[in-house]
Amino acid sequence: MLAFDARITTLVAMIDSSDDIPFFGDSEPVKRPSGLAARAMAARNQSAPAPDYLIGLNPEQRQAVVTTEGPLLVLAGAGTGKTRVLTTRIAHILATGLAFPSQILAVTFTNKAAREMKERVGMLVGGAVEGMPWLGTFHSIGVKLLRRHAELVGLRSDFTILDTDDVVRLIKQLIQAEGLDDKRWPARQFAQMIDGWKNKGLAPHEIPEGDARAFANGKGRELYEAYQNRLKTLNACDFGDLLCHPIRMLRANPDVLAEYHRKFKYLLVDEYQDTNTAQYMWLRLLAQRPQSKEPGQRGGSVNVCCVGDDDQSIYGWRGAEVDNILRFDKDFPGATIIRLERNYRSTEHILGAAGHLIAHNEGRLGKTLFTEQSDPEHEKVQVHAAWDSEEEARAVGETIEQLQRPDANGRRHNLNDMAILVRASFQMREFEDRFVTMGLNYRVIGGPRFYERQEIRDAMAYFRAVCQPADDLAFERIVNVPKRGLGDATIRQLHDYARARDIPMIAAARDLVETEELKPKARKSLRDVVEGFTRWSAALENTPHTELAERILEESGYTEMWQNDKSAEAPGRLENLKELIRSMDFYESMRGFLEHVALVMDAEQNEDMDAVSIMTLHSAKGLEFETVFLPGWEEGLFPHQRSLDEGGRSGLEEERRLAYVGLTRAKKRAHLWFVSNRRIHGLWQSTIPSRFLDELPEAHVEVAEAEMSYGGYNRFGGGSSGFSAGRQNPYGASRFDNPEIFASTYETPGWKRAQANRTDATSRNWGSRSGHQVERVGYGESGPRGVRTIEGELVAKSTTDTPSAFSIGDRVFHMKFGNGNVAAIEGNKLTIDFDKAGQKRVLDGFVTPV
DNA sequence: AAAAAACGAGTTTTT
DNA sequence: CTCGTTTTTT
After folding, report:
1. How far is the CA of A680 from the C1' of B10 (A)?
2. Phi-psi region of A201 (alpha: psi -120 to 50; beta: other; left: phi over 0)
3. How distant is C1' of B4 from CA of A827, in Å?
């Protein structure tokens, strides 16, 4: 601490003696006002009051903020105020005049994180900073670098950015051009391979021989090369190139690199545990400047601050290297490491459970979160059992309804504060179905994103082809959308003509319609298209871009296509197109819009509605909720079998981190669920509870039978949190392989039932649903293994075979969806075409005949 | 060229 | 089972 203070003091002295202290604003150094100087001084002087932005930070957070010099790793556990530290740190650097906004490079992974950081820095600094030009995602900063130096990697600065869809189509063409069978060698798979190589920063000549041979009869390398060449001619980049090109460019041009070394005084990286090798190399290049005599910059090392949490690294499967964060102090010798372990989010039980679970991982830097919010009133983490996923969904739905009811104090739980976090997206379906029948508002986070929808991509392809006549991929996408009678044959012809002359396809089309080579019908259609593009391109400069966009969609017949489409989705698609054009308003030009959309592939959700969120565990990272439901804690699903098969031990550890992430999203309540039977690929499979449940500490967990409407459970098992005394420490690694040890960690009905299922019926399939109308399940009065007996089928379940009172075509009314016609009936489940809400499946009890 | 039928695959996702 | 894709049919 002393050394630290001494260093700071020198620094302050240095700053104070300087005449042109950088302050807010980018170009003109401004003399720092004395009031601020005092504040800055105060930040470092313990006797004086701290500047207001430091108030409320705990000592570790504060240290992370003010340790501006030298490499710093902030290990920020879940809910420990990571973003606050990052933003305050930036504010601090700015406020104390250590750097201009333009001299700080701050990278995040998602646009959302970048946006949030910008906003929060703005708030802290009082909006005096005109944005930070170098705060953004790795990719957006990569683009920025590339636009400036495109020619150094053989591109023009107006290059286009291709998304996955374009890439796959392009690769498919290449595979076909090579004369390979595109079914045996799927383009999508090769696209992933390329992505994998680029994540590692590997150029075609650098990829491992084995990889190169693995695809297309050993033509992998060739294809990769061909792909890169094709990109170059298209003047395009894929996402991987946005990382790889800058690396190559900076390596090959030391003068350019030196320029950025001079420029960036401070580097900040968010979510460091998620960086892949390419991002790491990129960062190293910028961070490791040569020995420097400039004051404030110590030779060789740099003021790089990485923030992350090794326990939350859940993206290994897409190239993230946890090792980057584990290795930090070796990469940056003399690095300061600060741990943020004081958690402000969750109760002691949630932290206790999560902490105990994650402690089963090896290869971690080790943190233990603690909280001061301890209260006997706090609910323990609850583990619930259900027969199958339908029951699981129903029980969760009921719990949600209960929580939503006003409590004794008249307070009610907002739906917005609840989330269901699933391992795999197919699990969502069941919850959606259930919530629809219940009339419970929900929102699905993460599904297909706005800009990935077909209609949006089509529209964008039109815009791209207008702005970038060389964008063959865009042109090809829409040349026959709407259908214009330009089929494969015509396209092939266009292709060949264009390739032979090395001109874009639009130009080829323009030429071809003047010849006799095309069939008259195709020729006329193509001429119309070409004329359209000529017109629109001409209008590009002198027409407001939103107006032009509308015109393009109108004149091309695209809007009309959807207007004539009678399917249920058509109106929604038209609405999306309107939304697209509306959103263009925020941009200066169509080009500006396209540039932005290529990188910012998200659209904000409707936040006004009070609704339960349903999302995958992966998309939940960084979020928090009062109450979190975690269904599907079963072996094979969570941990997922595939992770185990492909990732082995580290795969398991990543799954465990995922469980950790899930638990730590909860502030007050975490409800874990496992079911005994789950339908996988259409077959009913008997399942066993996740090993992660066994890894939870009994002190913070209670195994509860669900508060099901049919009641009658609590008479079993003598209390819901009884644990067997004999197995206090069941955490040896061997238990994973030894089924016996699974037998009874918890002495509760649900648990025992699960164990019974496991031993009785591990491989039994329930071929049909008729075998399990189980609403009421009893247990042989705690036999040694808790044998399951089915006492009866007392309560009618929603899936009975009782014929419905409705018939197809009946006019019905539903509380939530209004009027509609019955389209199909299965048992008492009705498929109804609602006049307003579209097609939904509901239970007959929820509708009345009109 | 468009509609119907057969086929096959099926964690997690950002840019 | 259920979705998306490819192949076959008209």
Report:
1. 9
2. left
3. 28
What distances in angstroms separate CA A126 from CA A89, A119, A131, A161, A547, one per listed residue?
A: 15, 10, 11, 35, 37
pLDDT tens digits, A660-717: 999 999 999 999 999 999 998 888 889 999 999 999 999 999 987 544 433 333 222 2
- Could you report the per-residue pLDDT of A627-636, keeping only the tens digit for each? 999 999 999 9
**A271 in active site:** yes
Distance CA A358, CA A148 (A): 44
Report residue A624's pLDDT band, with 50, 70 and 90 as the boundaries.
Answer: very high
Cα A577 from Cα A457, distance rounded (Å):
10
For the CA atoms of A187, A189, A191, A196, the dihedral, rounded to the nearest 10 degrees, stands at -160
A681 touches strand C (CB under 7 A): yes
On whether the CB atoms of residues A278 and A247 are closer than 8 A, the answer is yes
- Measured distance CA(A330)–CA(A735) in Å, rounded: 35
* Whether A682 CB is under 7 Å from strand C: yes
Closest nucleotide to A422, Cα to C1': B12
A183 CA vs C7 C1’ separation (Å): 12
For the question of residue A737 being annotated catalytic, the response is no
- Known active-site residue A83: yes
- For residues A99 and A93, the answer to whether their CB atoms sit within 8 Å is yes
Residue A745 appears among annotated catalytic residues: no
A82-95 and A59-66 helices cross at what angle (nearest 10)?
40
| Residues A627, A418 contacting (CB under 8 angstroms) | yes
CA nearest neighbour of A100 among A16, A20, A25, A18: A25
Distance, in Å, from the CA atom of A185 to the CA atom of A739, rounded to the nearest integer, reads: 40
Type of residue numbered A638: F
Q: Give residue numbers, 221 to 260 of A, with CB < 7 Å from strand B.
A: 239, 242
Q: CA A182 – C1' C5 distance (Å)?
A: 13
What is the model's pTM? 0.77
Separation of CA A161 from chain center: 20
Cβ of A423 less than 7 A from strand B: yes
Measured CA to C1', the nucleotide nearest A182 is C6
Nucleotides of B under 7 A from a protein CB: 1-2, 10-15
The secondary structure of residue A291, as a DSSP letter, is P
Q: Report in angstroms the alpha-carbon separations of A223 from A154, A155, A185.
A: 19, 20, 12
How many angstroms separate the CA atoms of A228 and A246, rounded?
A: 15
Cα A134 to its chain centre, rounded Å, is 22
Residue A665 bears catalytic tag: yes
Residue A546 is a catalytic residue = no
For residue A566, give every residue at least 6 positions away whose Cβ sits within 8 Å of its Cβ, in sequence order, or none. Answer: none
Spatial CA neighbour of A380 closest among A745, A615, A696: A696
What's the pLDDT at A575?
86
Cβ contact A164 with chain B strand, < 7 A: yes
Q: How far apart are CA A82 and CA A87, in angstroms?
A: 9
Percentage of chain A with pLDDT > 90? 47
